[in-house]
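Schema walk-through. Below, the input block comes first and the output block second. Nothing else is stored per chain. Lengths vary across the set, and this one has 460 residues.
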Amino acid sequence: MTGSAKVERSRIAELMEREEKRLEDATPKSFELYKRAAKSLPMGVSSSYQARDPYPLYFTHGKGSKIYSVDGLELSDFHNGFGCMVQGHAHPAIVEAIQKRCELGTQFALPTEDSIIVAETLAQNFKLPKWRFVNSGSEATMDAIRIARAVTGRDTIMKIFGSYHGHHDYVMVSLGIADWGDIGQRDNYKSVSYGKGIPQAVIDMTAAVPFNDAPMMEARIQHLIDEGRKPACVIMEAAMMNLGVVLPEPGYLEAVREITKKHGIVLIFDEVKTGICSAAGGAVERFGVVPDMVTLAKALAGGLPSGAIGASEEVMAVVESGKVYQVGTYSGNPLSMAAARASLEQVMTPDAYKHLNYLNDRLITECDAVCAKYDFPGYTVGISSKGCVNFASGKIVDYETFIKYQDFELCNLAWLYNINRGVIMAPGREEEWTLSVQHTDADIDKYVNAFDELIRDVTA
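--- output ---
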């Protein structure tokens, strides 16, 4: 963060053109598949987050820490399905559990013992006694908000500006915007739709506040109370994972917990990205603050679609009483529950977390050393299996400082450098790494070497 080396925009543009040509030369089969896919799939992909200009890359299989493209590229996978695959690809314990379960039937829409065992484990790890299962993070946050509204009898929700909580309407608000001036002042952010198709009435029911600023949160809550719009809940990531990685400042989460308790507001930790990946008990274990509700997904079932909602007895009482219909045909799907049980019992062990912490510490130490070596203005942030290099001239603590300090062109160039040197990352502004328990020192070496080349070239 203290580096003084200058990075010329013309140099970045030159390297972008060179690296893009190198990638396109190496991926002709992906280009052919894209032309075919674009006829039946918008943008040639199943989700807009998979799209890429000028075309996406297509993949065939993964094994351990590696993923393989249709063009035969072998890549160390630091993308890991946006963090779904902290267990690594085709982990033997999970493969065996899925195979055994398949032979017994994959779906009944009826309860199985595995769902009980997974719920018991999560209750112990996250210090919340009651659990329900869903199929994705979006479902988990959607149902959690509905439950919170039922508990409080209120409609307004509060979120952190810049955080992603899934693709349902109430949280597709205030994720980001190109012109910071369009959303108003820090003490009264406007609610801004993330894309079209979201009713204005829904947008207006979601209020956004900055991360790492508890006094501002309390002031905004009081302002909403004065308007007769006291929030039902605050939904937030304990560590922001949509801007690279932004950790909570000391005392921040404790203050949020105190504020929400004082005002009778349900506190929801969205642990879709931190849960399982940062510790057995996720951010609750890491930071020692217990919310009223937790939402999980991504890494829960080792790559199978699954999510979960954990809550206190008091909160989940509205579900147990039948006042809230928390339902889903595939909720607690036997295949997903078998994979989740195998992951929790056999894969994500204390030794696994020690391994992740060791690898992450290596990445942080060695990437910081590269920045120092070239006097580059950047710094690392990490937590267990997740981390990033911020190409930033100042410390990022929320979305506002993210927009002010992060070099987005360098983020895009870094993705190209990585993939052309055998490493795949989450793209764009996230540009964060996610490790798996099957990553090795050789994967870390590959990442650090690619990063060294990038910083050497942009500072030359």
